[in-house]
Amino acid sequence: MERKRKRKQKRVAKEADWASYFARIKGVCPWSFRAYMTDTILFVDYADTDFNTWRLFLKYSNFETTVFKCPEKSADWLNNKCDELNLNQTDYEWLWSHPDEDSGDGHSTPIPVLIQQDRKQLTELRHKLGYEDEAETD
Which residues partner with 43 through β-bridges? Predict the structure, then answer.
């Protein structure tokens, strides 16, 4: 029981350091730190969420991104949910991150998350940076 509590405390402490996380990933996602610092990333606790409601909210809000915190979800669940959402919501790009899936580069989020971003805006940002997705070049 004590070990579980310590893990939870460690996870909560990590979660609180989003500024360091976004600063750390500037090389692969340079706009995320600015969005975090300007408070245009909405953090939501996942609880069997109605993603269509959040899709509409993001569309008509000043937020650039929604991060759904899913601390109890596995990488497999996140991957499957992300695939499902990308098929059903073509106006948004869905991404996921899980700390257990960090390849050693430090780019994984401190807790499991689903990330919702406006597809058109994200594509424009990627093109400005010279980033091309392999699927776009095929």
Answer: 67
Computed over every residue of the chain, the mean pLDDT equals: 80
Smallest CA-to-CA distance from 126 within 3, 17, 31 is with: 31
Residue 18: its pLDDT value, please? 92
Long-range contacts from 45-53, C-beta under 8 angstroms, 24+ separation:
45/69, 46/70, 46/73, 46/114, 51/85, 51/89, 51/116, 52/89
Q: Where are the domains of the chain?
A: 2-129
> What does the alpha-carbon distance between residue 31 and residue 42 come to, in Å, rounded to a whole number?
15
How many angstroms separate the CA atoms of 122 and 110, rounded? 22
Q: Mean pLDDT across the stretch 102-125?
A: 83
Of the pLDDT bands very low, low, confident and very high (cuts 50, 70, 90), residue 104 is confident
Question: Which own/partner pairs from 16-19 qualify as long-range (CB within 8 Å, at least 24 positions apart)?
Answer: 17/110, 18/43, 18/110
Q: Do residues 51 and 85 make contact, with C-beta atoms less than 8 angstroms apart? A: yes
- Cα–Cα distance, 50 to 30 (Å, whole number): 29
Question: Could you tell me if 62 and 40 are in contact, meaning their C-beta atoms sit under 8 angstroms apart?
Answer: yes
Quick: pLDDT tens for 122-137: 777 667 666 655 454 4
